[in-house]
Amino acid sequence: MKNIKNIKNRPAFTMLELIFVIVILGIVSSIGAELVAKVYESYIIQRAEHRATLKTELAALQIANRLASVVPGTVFRIKNDNTYESIESDFNGSVGTDYKGIQWVSSDTDSFSTNATPGWSGFCDINASTTPTISTPGSNLNTTTAVITALAGGALPTFSRRLFFPQDPTAYAVGSFPTSNTLTFTGTVPTRIVEHYKLAWSSYALVVEGGDLFLYYNFSPVPTTLYTGGSSSLLMKNISSFKFKGSGRTIRFKICKQEPIAEDINITACKEKAVF
Q: Which of 200, 215, 235 is the last residue of a domain?
């Protein structure tokens, strides 16, 4: 006769308990998936905000640096029909609809500050000047020529450099720079020379085209000369707003950029600055 071993009952999950476990696991996994999705969404939004803020800050800084060397009285708004009006005048339309940019003449700060001896000193020796030639002691005009040639793409611009005197809106043309510290007017000769002057070799324009902001340069330093004849550089993409206003010697501007996240979702960052 065979020995029969005692068989003990062992506890196990019932079908109802298994169903409860499956339901609980489903709830936990759905909550976990939602948390992961929320964390990822937050990361995407924060990354887009950071990118938009950083790009807007860098663009605003570049614009402010350019506007810091504006020749007073040469800043104008550009309308959509390529006509100009003073930045200090009242708006006759809305920015973004009737206006597309801003344009100005900038003094040549690059060759002025590139060496210990500036390319052009900004000072006239009135006693040694007899129009149409003026003496500018302390200048190194060879340096000015070299810097302008490099910035213009390797060739000296065919248009004339211009001199501006305080309280005089006329852009006086000067010829090629000799080795001596003298500048010669090639067109209109000023009736009055003062001790200070600013030298300019290019106008600049900031224009919104197709939703992107472009910087135009390397065109005649005469106010309201059409910017399309110059070189251009993309400054920032996806511009949602670019506003500007002048008062006296102060220029205020506000720039806003969109950073796309999805097909119908964008993050917008804005930066406003005032340049004196």
A: 200
